[in-house]
Amino acid sequence: MTTTSPSMVHIKTTVNGQVHELLVPPYMSLLDTLRELIGLTGTKEGCLDGNCGACTVSVNGRIVDSCLVLGAEVDGKEVDTIEGMATPEGLHPLQQAFLEEAALQCGICTPGFLVAAKSLLDNEPSPSEGRIRHWLAGNLCRCTGYDKIVRAVQKASTQ
Amino acid sequence: MVATFEPKTDYKVIGTRPIRHDGYDKVTGRAIYGADLTLPGLIWGVCVRSPHAHANIKSIDTSAAEAMDGVFAVITGADMPEAPDKLVDLGEGNVNFKWASNKLMAGDKVVYRGHPVAAVAAVDRYTAEEAARKVVVEYEVLKAVTNVVDALAPGAPIVLEDLVGDDLGEDVTNTNMAEHIRHEFGDVEGAMASAAHTIEREYNMQMVHQGYIEPHNATAVWDEEDRIKIWTSTQGAFTARTQIAGILQVDVSKVKVTPLEIGGGFGGKIPVYFEPIAAILSKKSRRPVKMVMERVAVFETTGPTPGGRMIIKLGADANGKLVAATADIWFEAGANPGAVIGPAAMCVYAPYEIPNTRIDCWDVVVNKPKTAAYRAPGSPQVAFAMESAVEELCQEAGWDSMQFRIDNSSREGTRRGDGVLFSKIGMEEVLEAAKNSDHWNAPLGDPPAGKKRGRGMANGYWFNIGLKSSVNLAVNSDGTVMLIEGSTDIGGTRVSMAMHVAEVLGIGAHEVRPSVVDTESVGYTDVTGGSRTTYATGYACWIAANNLVDELKKRVAILWDISEDDVEFSDGVFSSKAESEKTIDFKELAGKLADLGGPAISTGSVDLESAGDGFGLHIVDIDIDTETGKTDVVRYTAIQDVGTAIHPSYVEGQLQGGAVQGIGWALNEEYYMEEDGSMANSSFLDYRMPTSLDLPPIDTILVEVPNPLHPYGVRGVGETPICPPIPAVANAINDAVGIRLYNTPMNAGSIMKALSK
Amino acid sequence: MHPFAYVAPVTVEEAVAVLDKHGDRARPLAGGTDLLVKTRANVWELDAVVDIKNIPELMTVTVGNDGLSIGAGVPCYQIYENSEVAAGYPCIVDGTDIIGGIQIQSRAALGGNLCNAAPSADGVCPLIVHSAVAHIAGPGGNREVAVEDFCTGPSQTVLKKGELLVSMSMPKPPANFGAAYTRFIPRNEMDIAVAGVAVSLVLDPSGQNFESARIALASVGPVPILATAAGDSLAGKPVNDESIAAAAALARDAASPITDMRGTIEQRRQLIEVLTGRMINKAIERARG
Q1: How much is the ipTM here?
Q2: Which of B27, B215, B698 is the closest to A98 by Cβ?
Q3: How far is CA B505 from CA B545, B596, B654, in A?
Q4: What is the pTM of this model?
């Protein structure tokens, strides 16, 4: 850190159910806090301006672009990332459906899509195709044309 | 002598849909992509970039950056080794090391906006970015040229003063024209003069980007042995190694490239950008250096595909047979020579049999990022021109355009525009499937109030490449097989490689464990590009698996104390020719190998010609809001000859993904250039790639005309699907509202403007 | 980006004090969807960001007999998911549920949309046609500014050194009131308005005549435009195609767009006319219930 840097911010945050207490640079994004300080690199950087959704995580149950949140802002909050989606019992139905439906090609957008889709199904168990497409409009995929992603979410929604 | 194969249908593994092996890591966030890598002592590199598209560098002052706490190294163009003026083939395009080096880091002149002029390595990314802002560069700004017409105009600013252009073999200097090529067959003028119907149209297209979601990245260690280790997201570890070694002027064996998971490429991750810079920063700082590109720089400085200008003229006789065609094609190369004019010439007439043809292409240097391969590079552009012109010709002559395409279809023996004769191809089968498809025969239906609906279709073509691949196999004692390959997996090829091996060995796809490894762990393998991986690396897998069977026959011979010639293998079971009840299956044998001569391994390598020509046809229905010009795609079907679909889900995925990239290109995507040579819309917000909400389901019809040049009939699949959408949308717009658009993007503004005329 | 400090005050006074101390080198942080993009691009070089989301007044939505008040830091989703807002102020929902995607709406604040002062802001024209007022706190005390007067140019507002937008409030609509907003974008979400139009109107009890109307235009001038002549033209007119077309034409005249990467002057003018007609009709529909 440069000597002129402003003071670090002390935060205590719960990530995927685990409490992390750490000092973050005040200008550091939540994305970098997760990737660089906590070591969770499943959340991806795509654009750093909130237009691709690759960095989607959930904060207190709402999905956000973690590139547009400061690490300092999640003090006392619950953050859920792709790494917390599977449980010891196995993959989340969405993860399983993405595998079975071949809903990923390169896979870089997949964590963001899965976190976003999970937040949809958590609140609306049986969304229409249109609703799925609307909910996922903040997540760009350049490989699949979305067809198999939408089908995978539909498949998981019926389970 | 090229081996040919009879088509088969009785597959056990080919044609099934197993879960991809690497999928588990990718749905859990565990997969390590380039930017995810960390190493002990890692620091971050950031480039200082030119705000001007065309300028002389007067001076660079790095002292303030160097003085900052946490800064380890600052480099400029002066730190780049002098690279030779030498052309090297990378499979999907060539690289000239001198141009490539200048492109990565400017010497005394910047030739595109965002051109790196210096780079900084610091303790973390934020510090490196801050330090980069402290590098002071003085520029003498020059006038920029940003399109082919301006660049070729008399008195145009010259982008590269030492460029020697090649005009049909003649050297040209003081020019932005890098190359002019021509292909001519038959009596074009005579046939055109005799044609009952002719049409001549001009088309203009804007530059577009591949739009992969993962930014470019690289991590480098230049160690004390002067060995350079690179971790990166690349479409080809070996071609990256070739470029890095060439630019850094070291032997290829000094460079080890470890390909990490790659977040999309579409051709754009064949060139290297950060790798040599990170290596030089590492050499200077004696630390591992990681660089991750900001999105603006991805747009402004990496691999778009050319825009340009095309003039197409077609002539047909009174019976609706094409008799002559001419094409004049000007493509913008970007700031260094090398627009994809060769492939454009190969593709422009490919779906048609035309006896008399001429093609002239010009490669034009402009102050924009150097273009790179993008999915069927050069073909979508010429498909837009050709398929639009065909539709208009049919309209003017009163012909059914589906029947016209069938009547004029290319087939085995047809001469392509560049002279190559087609072997067994599936254009006719694709047309037949399209004509009989649900979509083509379905009524248009009624659009919502205020909108008009139209249907369009178009052909598309890509020739596909073969080239070199290497794989290794090794048998585990539990009956599984390790598959080591050099093809980076950009969209699910590990599973299709494993399926090739499993099919031969008579085991399950999940009993083969595929790994993509570094350049020191497998033989040379060309890029994942040109639709070659499933074809060529799959072919190498097939050879390696058959070699493994031969090796295992020797072990069975030891076990039964018979001659290896007396061992047969079928469906995963070895048997004795003499005593047919004597059998042992693959798994059981694997458990006994330790006592039968030890580890069983095999290799396969290939160097192949074309992966078999791929033809497709897409059908699209659109609704247009006649008051706003807004276009909604409401139904879409992609039909393609895929040879044999190894893993149909991923073949469908290629068709769907390519179609959607084409739809984006057709409707909204473009480099919107300001006068000063800057790109105004260098963000995902304003570049406007399609979202899930902009699309209907993308239906696919897989036509399987097995490629006789592959043991399972594989053809290249991935690239063809981006070619038909642009003209298909143009034709649908015409069908819906009667206007004909000759430029891309065909956005709402263009449609409104045309409607108001 | 320039390294900045993070401050999270819990009162308006504290926030104002920090903003006043740093002047234009500090900015309030609500959703961060503009602020972090601009600091990262070095459009803004800040020494401090002031996270206002711990200040209760800035995070509250109140719907009552005197109207609707929205704290400046309230994210879009808390506005459009509020059933009372949805029932009584659907035009505000029109403007907030189309900003970015779901992720952006979890964070982006309507107050931030106003302070960012983009001519294309989807949230601002609905506030204008609802005759909303911006409540500002500052070192010299509190003041109120009509929302149509809040933006003074692209990225420019009436906010002075140390001043903080606290909330936006609007009166409870009268009977026979209807309002609606839409924009034109090339995609279906995740886009910036090429042109946008909000309309509010009051019909007479018969529902057959306009009593009054307000029309506001986005993305066709340096600031969101209140097209007064267009709105006034409807007053006293019968509800028919002719009066709607006349108002739409006047809205078109009120637009002063530029040509840029998002659209041309001619396209934007035509869009304003088309969208104004559509929004008048939608507002009539809502007014008639």
Answers
A1: 0.97
A2: B27
A3: 7, 19, 27
A4: 0.98
